[in-house]
Amino acid sequence: MKSYIVGVGMTRFEKPESRDWQYWDMVKEAGSAALTDAGVPYEDVQQVPVGYCFQASTAGQRAVYEMGLTGVPVYNVNNNCATGSTALMMARQFVEGGISDCVLAVGFEKMQRGALGGGADGGDFKTSPVARHYGVMAARHGFEMSPPTAQIFGDAAREHMEKYGTSEAQLAAVGAKNHRHSVNNPYAQFQDAYTVDEILAAKTIHTPLTKLQCSPTSDGAAAAVVVSERFVDERGLGETAVEIVAQAMTTDTEESFASGSCIEVVGQPMSREAARQVYERSGLGIDDVDVIELHDCFSINELLTYEALGMCAAGESGKLVESGATTYGGRWVVNPSGGLISKGHPLGATGIAQAAELTWQLRGQAERRQVPGARVALAHNIGLGGAAVVTMLRRA
Question: Is 262 a catalytic residue?
């Protein structure tokens, strides 16, 4: 059975504590917007997977109760930074499995200011779910005082530079591109453009990564209405429906840890395998894709993902971004929203916000950031610990 996204909504992503609201307020805003976009009342929703990382158990119920008390099943989903796409995947599975005709996938996060240090990352690294990953990092690079996620990705960047000759300017070019894209996104946490030189001159978080190459902590929510083909036909939603052509989730294998490389342990093998599965299931490849939202939690991860998705050969990603191939006028437009670096990264919302952006792009509703003629889109969302979700979308 086929599944379709027929409604999306999101809040603006904001610096934590910048607005006086609770997580259920942001979920109501995003969820209600998605339902309005679909033209579907909450009473028609049959299942609700809700993704978040930093709230207590059953926070999903507390959040969606603001939209109605219908007794609908609510599932609380936590998969680190891939939480939102995991909730979306559950919604798709409910529909494609013939269990439900209309599912609302929701993701949100209300975070604390400052670098990630607890919750999804774990404060005690001996018992943290990602202790094995950080152990690989420490064995090769040591363990410093900088934020641990910046450290492990920064060390991956160092390895890429040493192995392939990738330059600091190429890493900064990712940040410059995504900040430039975010200028046109009213939902983005940051909407300022920076040059490569300005990004290189910003505060260093963990060499070679500067602040303007790192995703911030953010508050925000996003939602998507996922329905069956029967539901689309019965409600006359064909004009706005976006098909979920294929989707895959992968987790770590031996390859992630065998080499002792941070490039591997931060998820490139997971991303590569998830993309392979999606290409095989969809019959579409990276050359068919027009627009991409990918997980640029740090600039290096965008480069690693180019290689994992097959956009270039290993080691060629720095040259690819520098060439302009991944922005407007190039072969693909990557992160037209501004990506995690500039749009923001409320962990539970990120994967669904990617789907929202791509739905608007495929409908031709992305306004000043519209990718001309976009018909096929790809989303990539990853979390340490680990999970990688890749989704292929197509205008119905």
Answer: no
- Mind listing the pLDDT tens digit for each residue in 267-322? 999 999 999 999 999 999 999 999 999 999 999 999 999 999 999 999 999 999 99
> Active-site residue among 133, 160, 181, 345?
345
The yes-or-no verdict on residue 119 having pLDDT over 60 is no
Separation CA 85–CA 3 (nearest Å): 15
Q: Which two tokens stand for residue 281?
A: 């299931």
297 catalytic, yes or no? no
**Active-site residue among 81, 102, 214, 262?**
81
